[in-house]
Every structure is written in C-alpha cells, then in structure tokens.
Write a structure and sequence with these properties.
The structure holds 2 protein chains of 2 kinds. Chain A is built from 23 helices and 2 strands. Chain A is mainly α. In chain A, strand 1 and strand 2 form a beta hairpin. Chain A is globular. Chain B is of the alpha/beta class. Helix content of chain B is 42%, strand content 22%. In chain B, the strands form 2 sheets. In chain B, strands 1, 2, 3, 4, 7, 8, 9 and 10 form an 8-stranded mixed beta sheet that branches. A two-stranded parallel sheet of chain B has the order 5-6. The relative contact order of chain B is 0.17. Classes of the chains: A mainly alpha, B alpha/beta. Chains A and B meet through helix 3, helix 9, helix 15, helix 16 and helix 21 of A and helix 2, strand 2, helix 3, strand 6 and helix 7 of B.
C-alpha cells in the first residue's frame, strides 16, 4: 500500500464516529493531565490500560496516544502561569514562559505554545507517515558512542542556559551531575549516596526536583513579596490583546520550525526523547539568537521552540515503537504494553497484518492535533486571567497542588519531603544568583552521559578513539566543541585581525 | 467558622482517623473489597502487562475488583516491601519474577524474603540467546569458537540492575568456557539492550521470545537457541541449548506472593483462583497472543521451584563476584 493510499485508508478508519470519540476523549484527558502537575500522562495511561481491554485495539491505541500528545499541549499551561512544570517536558517552558506571564504576556505565551505545538505535531506526523522505516534504521545506528556525543552536545549547551554568571551556571550544572549519581549505579548496582535509605536507592526524580526548585521556591518568593503581579500588570483589554502580537509571531516562526525538526530527530532516539529535545532546542535558540541576553527574561523563542520540540518528539517516539517494538521512554513503554495486551506485535509485520491500526493511528494524530488546537486556543483567554488572581490565593493553591502532585508521581511520601527540601534550596540559591535550570539539565544528562561513556569504553576495550572513529559520533562531538569554542575563538581571531590591520 | 460547622468538621476529621482502625481479616471477610496486585516496576513493562492481563481475569474467580499498583524503585525492593508490610488479609498480592530472588544477591540491601508468602506460579518463559543478524553465527558453537579465537571481541549485552539476565548470561558464558573471552557491556534495561543489539552495537543478548519477536521479523536478530527442555512449540526451528551441548534450562517466571501471616484458608482461596485463571480461555488467549507461556505450579511445587532457583542464583552470583555485594 503506497503512502498516500495508506493515509487515505487511515483517515477512513480514524474518521469513523467511534474512533473520533476515542480521539477526543484521549485529547481531553491528555490536556487535563498535562495541566495538572504530578498527574503524569504515564500514570494516567497506565490507569486506563485495563479499560482498554474491552475496546478495539485501534481505538484503544488512538485514545492512549491522544492522552500522550494532549499532555504535551497542556503541560505548558502551569509552567507559564505558575512556574510549575505540568509535565517533565515542560520544565524548560518555565524559564521564559513564566517571565512572559509576569510581564503580562501570558496569553501570548500560551497561544504560541498551542500553535507551535499544532504546527510541530502536524509536521512530525507527516514525517512519520513518509519516513518511518528509513528513520528507524537511522536511529539504530546510534550506539553508546553516538549517545555520549549527543548528550555532551546537550551538556555543552548548559553554559548558555543561565542568564547570570557563567561560573554560577557551571557550578549548578556540576551539582546537577552529582545529584544524578544518587541511587543504584545503573550498571553494577552499587549504592551511591543513598546513606542507607531505601528511598534514595532509586535516585531522585526530576519532576520532584523541578516542582520544588521552580514551584515551591516561587511560593516562597510570593510570601516574601506578597503584592507583585496584580499590581504590576494592567488588566488586558479585549480578547485579542491576549494573543501573540505581530512581533511575537514573527519572532516565533523560525524557532517553531527549528524546534519541530530538532524534536522530531531527537525523539526517535532511545532515552529521554522529549526532555532532551526541549533542553537542546532552548540551548540552540539561545546560542544562535542575536540577543541571547533576553533569554530568561521572557524571550518568546525560548517558549516556542521547546514546546514545538516536545510535541514533535512525542510523535517521532512512535517510529521505533511501531517499526521495531523498541520503547524510547517510559510513556511509550506503556503504549507497547497496550499493544501487547491486545496481542499486537509491533514490527514490520504490523504494517502487513494490521494496516488499519498503523494508518488509522497516524491519521488520528492529524485529527488529534487539530482537535487540541481548537480545544486549547479558547482556553488561553481564561487561563491568562488566572495570572491576575492575587498571590494570597494562588500561593496556597500552588502549594496544595504541588504537595499532592509530589506524592502522585511515585506513590511515595518521601518525594514530598524531597520536593520541599529542594524548594527551600532553590529559593535560597536563586537569592544569591544560582539558577535551577542548569542543575536540572545536568541532572538529566549526567547519568545518561555516564552510562554511554562506560558502555562505549567497554565496547572499545578502553580506547577513547571510538568516539572519533565512528562518523556520527565524530560529527556530533565536533559540533559540540564548535559551539563551545566558537564565541571566544571568534573574539580572539577578531582581535588578531584588528591588530593586523593596524 | 461558626460553632455548628466547626463541630461537624471536627466530627468528620475524627471519623477519618478512626476508620483505618477497623480492619482485621478472616476468611469470611475476604470476599469483600479489592485485591491489589503490586508490580515493582513502572507501568508498561512485561511484568506490568502480564500482571494487568492476570488481574483482569482473576477478578472473575475471586469475585472482587482487582487493580494493579505500580511501586517501582530500589531494584524491586520498594514493591516487595509494599507487600511485606501490607495487611495479611490476602488483599495485597505481589506479582514478582526472578528479579525477586536475584535481588537477594545483587542489591546492597535486599528485602528479607521471609516477609513474603508465595502462593503460586502462573508463568514461565524460557530465555533465548539472540545474535545480531549480520553476524555469521548459525549456531551456539559458531559463536563459542569465534569467542575462543578472538578474545574480547564478542560483545555480550547484559542488562537490568537486579541482574537476572546478567546472571544467566554470565553463567552460560562460563559453561561455554568463554567467560574470560567475552566483552560484557552493561545496559540499564532490556529495552536499551534490545536497541543496541538491533543496531549491531553488541553481538549477543538474552531475552524471551516475545521480546525478540519484532526484531526477528525485522531481520535484525537471529535466535540461536532456547533454554528449554524441548523445543518451543511455536518455534520448532529454534534448537534448544541442550541439543547444542549445554544442558541449561532457565527462564523468566512470574508468580503471586502475599504477606507473611495471611491465614492459610485465604491462601488456599487465592491458590484455587490462580489455578482457575491459568485455565481460563480468555487469559490463555491474551497470553498466547503475546507469546507468554502459561504454566501453573501450586503452592508446594512453587516453594520447591523457588528453593532450587534460589540455590542457582546464589551459586552464580558468588561465582560472578556479585555476591556478597560491595557496600
């Protein structure tokens, strides 16, 4: 079945009334789940899995998928309004999104998120339809050395994440890497930094730390300065002032494009997927921006690109899942579980044996993205006004939500304690100019880099040459080094040229 | 708050605190309530999928609602503790696998299994040895002779922190005499190892049929052998390890455990319900579609099985050097 036939067939499946209902339910649930912090889409999908037993496999998969990418749309909402990451992938949105809200541009931020996500989602579904098998092949070429180089590229961008002093940014990153080592060594199960506590054996959870350092610390700031937002921002006049203005549109176009492509490519690779994509796209945007100093203070590129990236990555996550049965992250693993429960084996035979499921799913993604855009845009107006509620009400509300959410992530009361500790820590750190974002980025990437490094050296029997001898790894490392070295090098070279001219 | 409202609030709160105190179990009481199945992994994995299929059908025979609770962390320790510390009333069941036994010898602070009461086994899936398709090995002996001639060139993937695949693979390599020549690469989980094998970054790995199936279909992996007494009925072309000279029979099992101290009558009820589930058509078809074999061993046989497995794990872990674990 050719691609266009396939897509046409897929639409005939996806547009059946019952599948449209499943799609809608999934998207709606996803949006709600994404907006509520702590209630992760993974947990929700797991809860719904038993219910899908009695449904048609295609319908079940459509609904579960709707939850997944729906959560990506909704996750940015609390990030922008309250600086609480609704989903792990929305952490980066907290950086500039919240600052935009403080300046009264919450609506613009939310609007750009919705539209950027729609664009990215659509583009990546097209990519999925056209390029799934060759891309899966390409993704398989990524072995431990390639992952190491890619993660190092990500880590090198951490230098650009902070808005303040470079030294402080690097210090926080260092601390992040250290925190990432807490728990069982992923390869030899030796306990590290667990201090005899079983709870620490599984390590610290990124969502908990993020909620603490962003959300709880923000609450402390609210207590400190009770009268801030509502006095600083004038009440918007009319609905359209809530949407992005022309300048913001113009600024966002290229970032959304870049974010979509980057997210799509990174999402195919195992491990992290969406999270790494958001960090990478934020770093890239800041790095190539003509005015990088705006980042961290409400630059819309810093919102548009990561949001596009995480939606794009969500779709491309399906490529290794459907073609090879390889789940690239925990959420996709649930989808795999769902497939298994219905007795469907992913792989090349999926296309032959269940073309209705494959193409129906892809077509439903087009439909789902459109539905989500229609669902989210009107809500922008309502949500944007939340910013004007006095902090004496939102503060306790945020605290309440965070406390519940912290428990909900892993069914662990210990996590609540961790979140509060990091909240206090984050608040104190920010007072003296140390930002949370570099710590989080390093916390996520550190363990991945460690595992990749050890595996690579195992493969090469100890030789570091393996990172250069393999083409993909060599290219990626070169880009990383170039990104790091280029600015100071350019300065030096310019200095020489000026000297020489004189 | 006004006086009356305050009183009502206080009353409600007091009630909330008193409620948990009501709850002792007898066989007569057992028929009411919910049975939870604790899975010590995050949702989406093999154990999770199997547990959900099981719970779905089990509720028919136990005549209660069932639910699956994921309690990942600390190897499998947090999930295990959840069952150990639960009320011994038969409502909290654990769906545990080999990892439970392996963790005893691999984790720095394993959970004392004396707190658990095994009930029955319902699944046993033999492991297979898969190699990257583009390698020239057509049989186990091809691979073994390659390793012997080229020390440290054979890249062997091992995975999972709790070490069952790790233990099995190393035990096999030792039996084949190529333990010293193998280059072991550790992965965080089966999924990562699968991806690395499919991409040819490692040469060989072990897992169950169901996991390798999509890769075999995609011509990325070739299965050289299955660790079973006789050939697998669904894969008659795959020779057993025994046929190729290695008398090893091992696999992934899943069994139901509950809290120590649960009254024997309740355990009997559970055991009977598990047996009925394993004979249920719906369950069998669900498992078969995913290529998960169903096998029932009752309480006594299960206990014996566990004792034997435990001995094997201890031996291998000591030999490999994982036990006693370095603190």
């Amino acid at each position: 079945m050719g691609i266009f036939d396939g897509v046409a067939y897929g639409f005939s499946v996806a547009l059946s009334p019952i599948n449209i209902v499943y799609c809608f339910v999934g998207c709606l649930l996803g949006t709600i789940v994404g907006v509520l912090p702590g209630l992760g889409c993974a947990a929700t999908m797991a809860l719904l899995l038993p219910m899908t037993f009695n449904l048609e496999p295609t319908g079940a998969l459509i609904m579960l998928s709707g939850i997944y990418y729906g959560a990506m749309y909704g996750g940015s909402t609390t990030s922008i309004l309250f600086r609480i990451p609704g989903e792990v992938t929305s952490v980066v949105t907290c950086l500039d999104g919240y600052e935009m809200a403080r300046k009264g541009r919450a609506g613009a931020a939310l609007g750009i998120c919705a539209i950027g996500s729609f664009f990215a989602g659509t583009v990546s579904v097209i990519g999925l339809s056209l390029f799934a098998p060759p891309l899966a092949e390409w993704a398989l070429k990524f072995g431990p050395p390639e992952f190491f180089s890619l993660m190092m590229l990500g880590l090198s961008l951490v230098a650009f994440m902070g808005k303040g002093s470079l030294l402080k940014t690097i210090m926080m990153a260092g601390l992040g890497v250290l925190l990432g080592t807490v728990g069982l060594d992923p390869m030899t199960s030796v306990a590290r930094y667990s201090f005899g506590s079983r709870n620490l054996l599984s390590g610290l959870d990124m969502v908990i730390i993020a909620m603490g350092m962003f959300g709880i610390s923000e609450v402390f700031k609210m207590i400190e300065e009770p009268v801030r937002m509502e006095q600083m921002i004038s009440v918007p006049k009319g609905f359209f002032s809530l949407l992005p203005n022309r300048q913001e549109w113009r600024d966002s176009t290229a970032p959304i494009l870049r974010g979509s492509v980057l997210g799509f490519l990174v999402g195919i690779l195992p491990g992290g997927g969406g999270i790494v994509a958001t960090f990478l796209s934020y770093g890239v945007e800041k790095r190539i921006s003509k005015h990088p100093e705006r980042f961290g203070y409400g630059a819309i590129e810093g919102v548009a690109s990561p949001e596009a990236a995480n939606n794009s990555a969500t779709t491309s996550n399906y490529i290794p899942l459907l073609t090879l049965g390889i789940p690239t992250n925990a959420v996709v693993a649930i989808l795999l579980g769902g497939l298994m429960i219905h007795g469907i084996t992913p792989g090349p035979l999926l296309l032959k044996l269940h073309p209705d499921m494959f193409w129906g799913l892809i077509a439903s993604m087009y439909i789902g993205n459109a539905m989500l855009l229609i669902m989210n845009l009107p809500l922008v107006g309502i949500f944007a006004r939340i910013v004007h509620i006095p902090s004496s009400i939102t503060g306790p509300l945020i605290t309440f939500i965070c406390l519940f959410a912290a428990y909900g992530v892993n069914n662990s009361a210990f996590d609540i304690l961790v979140m509060i500790v990091f909240g206090i820590f984050g608040y104190l750190m920010e007072k003296i100019g140390f930002e949370p974002a570099p710590l989080l980025l390093a916390f996520v990437l550190g363990p991945m880099i460690e595992v990749a490094l050890r595996q690579s050296l195992g493969l090469s029997q100890g030789s570091f040459y393996i990172f250069i001898s393999r083409p993909i790894s060599a290219v990626t490392l070169s880009i990383a080094i170039f990104l790091l070295v280029a600015p100071p090098l350019a300065k030096v070279v310019r200095g020489w040229i000026n000297e020489w001219r004189r | 708050m006004k006086g009356k409202t305050r009183f009502v609030c206080l009353a409600l709160v007091t009630l909330l605190f008193i409620l948990p105190l009501f709850g002792k179990a007898t066989a007569a009481d057992f028929s009411k309530g919910t049975v939870s199945f604790v899975v010590p992994y995050p949702p989406g994995g093999v154990t999770d999928a199997i547990a959900r299929m099981f719970a779905q059908v089990f509720s028919k025979y136990i005549k209660q609602t069932t639910m699956v609770v994921n309690k990942p962390g600390a190897g499998t320790a947090l999930g295990t503790l959840e069952v150990v510390n639960a009320n011994p009333d038969g409502h909290t069941l654990g769906v545990f696998s080999n990892a439970l036994l392996a963790s005893q010898y691999v984790l720095p602070e394993p959970v004392d299994l004396k707190g658990l009461e095994p009930v029955a086994l319902f699944n046993f899936d033999p492991n297979t040895i898969g190699v990257y398709e583009q390698l020239p090995f057509q049989s186990i002996n091809d691979m073994v002779s390659f390793a012997q001639k080229n020390p440290k060139k054979l890249k062997v993937g091992i995975h999972s922190g709790t070490g069952t695949a790790h233990l099995y693979m190393v035990a096999f390599m030792k039996k084949a005499g190529i333990d010293a020549e193998a280059n072991y690469i550790a992965f965080k989980g089966g999924g990562d190892a699968k991806a690395a094998l499919a991409g040819g970054h490692i040469d060989v790995a072990t897992d169950v049929f169901g996991v390798f199936r999509p890769l075999v279909d995609a011509k990325k992996v070739r299965i050289l052998a299955v660790a079973r007494e006789r050939r697998h009925p669904l894969y008659p072309n795959v020779p057993t390890l025994k046929e190729q000279g290695y008398d090893i029979s091992w696999g992934t099992f899943h069994g139901i455990f509950t809290t120590k101290g649960t009254p024997p009558e309740i355990i009997q009820i559970l055991e009977k319900a598990i047996e009925s589930t394993t004979k249920d058509k719906e369950f069998l078809s669900l498992m078969e579609k995913n290529q998960f074999p169903v096998e029932f061993r009752d309480l006594q046989k299960f206990k014996l099985f566990l004792k034997n497995e435990d001995k094997v794990y201890k031996e291998i872990a000591t030999e490999v050097g994982l036990y006693p674990p370095k603190k």
